[in-house]
Design brief:
mainly alpha; developmental protein; disordered C terminus; 20 helices; differentiation; FRIGIDA-like protein; coiled coil; single chain
Length: 531
């Protein structure tokens, strides 16, 4: 600021300096013996021009300085707010973590005390505060371990019977037959698993047939349903385990169960190498099942984190992806995973994971979404309307329409409307939808209509088209231009506080060199996830 004032003072004294120079020049001219080529007017114009130029540049610098100070002040205020929010989150996380630690220590202490009393022949005591002490339970005695253990399986009592009989094939078939009511099934399966003699063993047995012997079994719709059911059963077992105390979990997931789960994982692992990462589009059931297996049965320590993190792009579209990464201790690997997604044209998945792991500062969502749309339009540009077939033009429009809907959905899910207004995008969607509907209607009208015989059978009469009945041939405007209905919100769960962290650096990932055009590979975001 002092330098600015000194510069302003020097500029202000320019006029007096010019006057002094004028006097000196006049004195010099009066005493000159020869005619000088210079004239005072020329000198005055020269110095006046320099003065104006300096003043203009000085004012510009002042404006830039003020603007910089304003931006700096706002940035500091924002940084202070974020620091305060981070501190508040840390304090809240520490409080919750301490509560969980205290509860775990209390449960372990009570269990050890109860075990000591039982071993010494002393009568067990439930305590004066009315809280039940934790007992060592066998897998068949875990029914009372839920917080509200009086809940029963009411809608599908057959589930309880199948679990009691340890009928894995029957359980698979029952879930497949009732797939329309999948939400209700998922709520009751964890409770039904309690009735099994060994819930963990029942779930492991249900995984048989995940990889059939047939070469073309992957394309079979029944196989896809079976794989989804296997994943759901492992998720339900995880729900059951999360509602049990530590002693019951150790009894349920014994070393023998872990060994069997590890054998299955080792059998599946080589088959993941043959998967087409490009074709999976972040929705691979095989990779999801593998990650869910090692997470549910707690055998992640036997596998390399780098190898596990390379599987994340193959399941990035799955709604369980974020929770799986945290549970497996891969949170530190997420920056590398997001970079892989961005480089391979899957910016939507990258934005979802960036929000899930609070990495939006490192991976700004709006530029990623704009880049996604830019690539979509760039992929559509080579096809010129005048030289392309109607089918090719339709495919180009479909690509852009799919990209627009995906971006709008992502913006709305993450509340980015202020940073990226959706009105222009929605107008473009309506325009493409209208063009699509007009083209479809024109195609239908162009089809030859079969001639109908006259009522008296005396040949065919002229086809009359301009009649009142034809006015109802086309549907109403609201029917023709169907509004875009968004599917179920596709948002990853927020970061949890009780997950492990990896201390290793972010992994480096590489997609196969044969990766084709991202928008030409049928990558869709609107397909609803079954379970």
């Amino acid at each position: 600021m002092e330098d600015t004032k000194s510069v302003a003072t020097l500029i202000g004294s320019t006029a007096s300096k010019i006057q002094q120079l004028q006097k000196a020049f006049a004195e010099l001219e009066s005493q000159r013996a020869l005619t000088l080529n210079l004239r005072w007017k020329e000198l005055e114009e020269h110095f006046s021009g320099l003065e104006k130029s300096l003043k203009r540049r000085f004012h510009e610098l002042e404006d830039q300085e003020k603007e910089f100070e304003t931006k700096t002040r706002k940035a500091r205020e924002m940084l202070q707010k974020r620091e305060a929010a981070v501190v508040a989150k840390e304090q809240s996380s520490l409080v919750r973590l301490q509560e969980k630690r205290d509860a775990a220590v209390f449960a372990i202490t009570n269990a050890l005390e109860k075990h000591r009393k039982l071993s010494s022949g002393q009568p067990a005591d439930n305590g004066d505060n009315g809280e039940l002490l934790v007992e060592e339970k066998q897998p068949e005695d875990i029914k009372s371990s839920f917080e509200n253990g009086n809940l029963e399986v009411k809608s599908y009592p057959q589930l309880v019977k199948l679990c009691e009989e340890m009928d894995s094939e029957g359980l698979q078939k029952f879930i497949s037959d009732n797939r329309k009511n999948l939400a209700a099934l998922k709520e009751e399966i964890p409770w039904a698993l309690k009735a099994a003699g060994s819930p963990a063993r029942l779930v492991l047995e249900s995984l048989e047939g995940f990889y059939p012997s047939e070469v073309d079994g992957k394309k079979d719709a029944n196989l896809l349903g079976l794989r989804r059911t296997c994943i759901m059963l492992m998720e339900c077992l995880s729900v059951l385990l999360s509602n049990l105390d530590m002693v019951s979990v150790l009894a349920l997931i014994s070393e023998d169960i872990k060994e069997q789960a590890n054998l299955i994982a080792e059998e599946w692992k080589p088959k993941l190498d043959a998967l087409d990462m490009d074709a999976s589009n972040g929705n691979s059931l095989e990779a999801h099942a593998f990650l869910q297996l090692i997470d549910t049965f707690g055998i992640a320590s036997g596998f390399n984190e780098e190898e596990l993190s390379r599987l994340i792009p193959m399941v990035s579209r799955r709604r369980q992806a974020a929770d799986l990464c945290r549970s497996l201790g891969l949170s530190e690997k997420m920056p590398g995973v997001i970079e892989v997604l961005v480089k391979n044209g899957r910016q939507i998945d990258a934005v979802n994971l960036a929000f899930a792991f609070e990495l939006t500062e490192q991976f700004s969502p709006v530029p990623l979404l704009k880049s996604y749309l830019k690539e979509a339009r760039k992929a559509s540009s080579p096809v010129k309307p005048g030289n392309a077939s109607p089918t090719a033009q339709t495919e180009v429009s479909e690509r852009e329409l799919t990209a627009l809907k995906a971006v709008i959905k992502c913006i709305e899910e993450h509340n980015l409307e202020e940073q990226y207004p959706v009105d222009p995008l929605q107008k473009r969607v309506l325009l493409l939808e209208k063009a699509k509907a007009d083209k479809k209607r024109a195609t239908e009208v162009a089809k030859p209509q079969p001639k109908r015989p006259r009522a008296n059978g005396a040949g065919y009469g002229p086809r009359v088209t301009n009649i009142a009945a034809d006015k109802t041939f086309y549907p109403r405007v609201t029917d023709r231009y169907m509004q875009y209905v968004y599917d179920r919100p596709y948002v990853y769960a927020g970061p949890a506080d009780n997950h492990s962290h990896s201390l290793l650096a972010s992994a480096t990932y590489n997609f196969s060199p044969s990766h084709g055009n991202y928008f030409g590979n049928g990558y869709q975001y609107q397909t609803p996830y079954l379970h």
